[in-house]
């Protein structure tokens, strides 16, 4: 059985849950509680040397890390429905949109970084929230501009089917909402997110639907 | 002609230069001076809505962003020599190693973030350096552990040929050296980096070899 080591609120685990659901793959969940620090314990480091989540343990015992690498693996192993378009330029666009979130927004705003800002740099709660919202604004300003119909967006980030870009977008919007970011300047992001949230694959992957949701 | 909009010291542009060189592709360079803030000007935002580098303008006028997406595009358009192994699990491993650098180290340590720490959060030079080295240590500790021969590493991060993982590793090591990080705990990272630096594709992509090196 495929097992996902994750955490209900981890954006990266959330991405993998969406991908698994879009592919219609059954999987077990093994929660790693990030708030309690279980990700840094030896049992988790043995499967994920970074001491992070998610880790996907496949049927044949391989342990895969890094959410986008896992999603591409799933797409290669189970090609239907595709998470990337068939044309090379389209694939580059979808990967770029996904990486805008995964390389430019999320790494700056995840739990370990926010904890480090407070614990090591002595940043107060207001400044922490300012930091969070700054990187959301920087990233979403660009994303909104890149999601114009002329560039290939439709009902979803690329065309009219969900892709790797939407898999990254929705968990990031969820997080931005948790931090009460004002998203009124991003009508396209909101429209596409609503379209994603209408799909069972996204609904069943949502943090509040997970067994470890507290 | 393929044109790379980049900056000699940008890690992300450095990755794309290595990929272009490994593929043996000719390209023009159009420098965007990050220290002068040219990346945020309208001319750059028109080609890269994030206001970042690199942007690769292809022969047919397409403008591609995000370095890993660009490298995968080049690999799909010009399959030889491959930047990813042929087996699905190997591809997942190489992508995960690349993303460890591109999603977990570099986003926290690039120029715009360091500037924000100093300018907005009032962090002093010592604390900025501490921040930089902290994320290098976190990332390289994990990377060193993941580069064991049993997991598939050889002369390079995966096997005996350079891949997308090495393309990400070498610019990150270059940056760590600039910030005088102690790399003595990472013999495998150092050995693989030395092997990469023996190759013309990496040498010709090095920051000091670029036309805009100041």
Automatic annotation (TrEMBL), chains A, B:
<protein>
    <submittedName>
        <fullName>Maleylacetoacetate isomerase</fullName>
    </submittedName>
</protein>
<dbReference type="GO" id="GO:0005737">
    <property type="term" value="C:cytoplasm"/>
</dbReference>
<dbReference type="GO" id="GO:0006559">
    <property type="term" value="P:L-phenylalanine catabolic process"/>
</dbReference>
<keyword id="KW-0413">Isomerase</keyword>
<dbReference type="Pfam" id="PF13417">
    <property type="entry name" value="GST_N_3"/>
</dbReference>
<dbReference type="InterPro" id="IPR004045">
    <property type="entry name" value="Glutathione_S-Trfase_N"/>
</dbReference>
<feature type="domain" description="GST C-terminal">
    <location>
        <begin position="87"/>
        <end position="214"/>
    </location>
</feature>
<dbReference type="InterPro" id="IPR040079">
    <property type="entry name" value="Glutathione_S-Trfase"/>
</dbReference>
<dbReference type="InterPro" id="IPR034330">
    <property type="entry name" value="GST_Zeta_C"/>
</dbReference>
<dbReference type="GO" id="GO:0004364">
    <property type="term" value="F:glutathione transferase activity"/>
</dbReference>
<dbReference type="InterPro" id="IPR005955">
    <property type="entry name" value="GST_Zeta"/>
</dbReference>
<comment type="similarity">
    <text>Belongs to the GST superfamily. Zeta family.</text>
</comment>
<feature type="domain" description="GST N-terminal">
    <location>
        <begin position="1"/>
        <end position="82"/>
    </location>
</feature>
<dbReference type="InterPro" id="IPR010987">
    <property type="entry name" value="Glutathione-S-Trfase_C-like"/>
</dbReference>
<dbReference type="GO" id="GO:0006749">
    <property type="term" value="P:glutathione metabolic process"/>
</dbReference>
<dbReference type="InterPro" id="IPR036249">
    <property type="entry name" value="Thioredoxin-like_sf"/>
</dbReference>
<dbReference type="InterPro" id="IPR034333">
    <property type="entry name" value="GST_Zeta_N"/>
</dbReference>
<dbReference type="GO" id="GO:0016034">
    <property type="term" value="F:maleylacetoacetate isomerase activity"/>
</dbReference>
<dbReference type="InterPro" id="IPR036282">
    <property type="entry name" value="Glutathione-S-Trfase_C_sf"/>
</dbReference>
């Amino acid at each position: 059985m495929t097992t996902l080591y994750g955490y209900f609120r981890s954006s990266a685990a959330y991405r993998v849950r969406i991908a698994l659901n879009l592919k219609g793959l059954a999987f077990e969940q093994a929660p790693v509680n990030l708030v309690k620090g279980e990700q840094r314990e030896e049992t988790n480091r043995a499967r994920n040397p970074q001491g992070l989540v998610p880790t996907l343990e496949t049927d044949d015992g391989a342990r895969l890390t890094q959410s986008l690498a896992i999603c591409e693996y799933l797409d290669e192993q189970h090609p239907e429905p595709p998470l990337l378009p068939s044309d090379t330029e389209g694939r580059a666009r979808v990967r770029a949109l996904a990486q805008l979130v995964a390389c430019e927004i999320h790494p700056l705003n995840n739990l370990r970084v926010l904890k480090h800002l407070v614990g090591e740099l002595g940043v107060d709660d207001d400044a922490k929230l300012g930091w969070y919202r700054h990187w959301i604004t920087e990233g979403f300003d660009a994303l909104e501009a890149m999601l114009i119909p002329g560039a290939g967006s439709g009902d979803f980030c690329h065309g009219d089917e969900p892709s790797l870009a939407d898999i990254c977008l929705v968990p990031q919007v969820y997080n931005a909402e948790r931090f009460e970011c004002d998203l009124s300047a991003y009508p396209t992001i909101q429209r596409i997110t609503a379209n994603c949230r209408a799909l069972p694959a996204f609904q069943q992957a949502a943090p509040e639907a997970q067994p470890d949701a507290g």
